[in-house]
Design goal:
- This protein has 303 residues and is mainly beta.
- It is built from 3 helices and 37 strands.
- A 12-stranded mixed β-sheet has the order 5-8-11-14-17-22-25-28-31-34-36-37.
- Strand 36 and strand 37 form a beta hairpin.
- The longest helix is centred in the first third of the chain and has 16 residues.
- It is flat.
């Protein structure tokens, strides 16, 4: 701690709008000038930060300011969070459904037959949970989300408003008369533990087998995951991106906004895609970064 070790705060603020009684954080060098102007009482900074001017606020030095403030926000949110059993009077829960302890079900939510929901999960208003769905513990399903029958949701999963889990994939067979015959999808979606699905995102069920979103993955709003796709652990996917059917994305990948990944491809672990990249072929080497359409290595694109 550099400054007053007795400093106290009651709220969070961005460093550009810090005020007395607030705590901020500084991690991006572009914002350094705000450190000297900020009126907040405490600023979390990296241990490597060396001020070029005097700083009025108390500096708390940590290994990584960004992850430290994320942990602090988690702590404060957890202190405010409460788990209580609640059943909205206008909700519909089928008699064969089994709900764990302290499960919240909001008004106009529908819980289908033989559904299994773990302890301390919150099903908010206007959520549809189809027959035979399994949802783990400490999940949050926000208003308007739709989970089709037979889907499997792990523990600590967050599904935001109007996301659709388990709709049919876009599969049609051309016929001789020029029409298209729908291919029935008989599989499901498996979302593993600690996954977050953004608002208005869709994850399609597979024709056979499962579409799988593995542990720790973060998917932004307005994304599309097609049928039979497999996304590896701890991958992040920004808004308006899409992965076509039967592609497999490795672990710890970073997919920027509006990225498109064609069908039946394999992407190696630790691959990064800049915004609006269009991938048309396999990525076999781990740790590469790509940009452009068709995708080429990032530095080659810049040249």
């Amino acid at each position: 701690v550099d400054g007053n070790p007795q400093a106290t705060v009651t709220t969070f603020a961005r460093i550009e709008s810090g005020k007395p009684g607030a705590i901020c954080f500084f991690a991006n060098p572009k914002y350094e000038h705000y450190v000297y102007e900020c009126k907040a009482d405490i600023i979390i900074v990296n241990k490597t930060f060396i001020p070029q001017k005097s700083v009025k606020a108390t500096l708390v030095r940590v290994d990584d300011a960004y992850s430290a403030v994320a942990s602090l926000l988690d702590y404060v949110t957890a202190k405010k969070r409460s788990y209580k059993r609640y059943r909205g009077l206008r909700s519909r829960i089928r008699w064969s459904a089994r709900l764990g302890k302290k499960v919240y079900v909001g008004d106009f939510a529908y819980i289908g037959k033989r559904v299994r929901i773990g302890d301390c999960t919150k099903i908010y208003e206007n959520v549809y949970v189809g027959d035979d769905v399994k949802i783990g513990k400490f999940c949050t399903i926000y208003p308007g989300a739709r989970i089709y029958p037979g889907m499997v949701i792990g523990n600590n999963v967050i599904i935001h408003s109007n996301a659709v889990i388990g709709a049919d994939g876009f599969g049609f067979a051309p016929l001789e008369d020029g029409t298209w015959k729908k291919i029935q999808h008989t599989g499901n979606v498996i979302i593993e533990d600690d996954v977050e699905i953004g608002a208005n995102t869709t994850v399609d069920k597979s024709q056979m087998g499962s579409t799988i979103v593995k542990k720790g993955t973060r998917i932004d709003k307005l994304c599309r995951i097609a049928d039979n796709v497999e996304i590896g652990p701890n991958t992040v996917m920004a808004a308006m991106s899409g992965i076509a059917g039967s592609s497999k994305v490795g672990e710890h990948c970073i997919i920027g906004g509006q990225v498109g990944i064609a069908g039946h491809l394999t992407v190696a672990d630790n691959t990064s895609f800049a915004a609006q990249t269009g991938l048309l072929s396999n990525v076999r080497k781990s740790g590469e970064a790509y940009m452009g359409t068709p995708a080429i290595p990032y530095m080659q694109y810049m040249r």
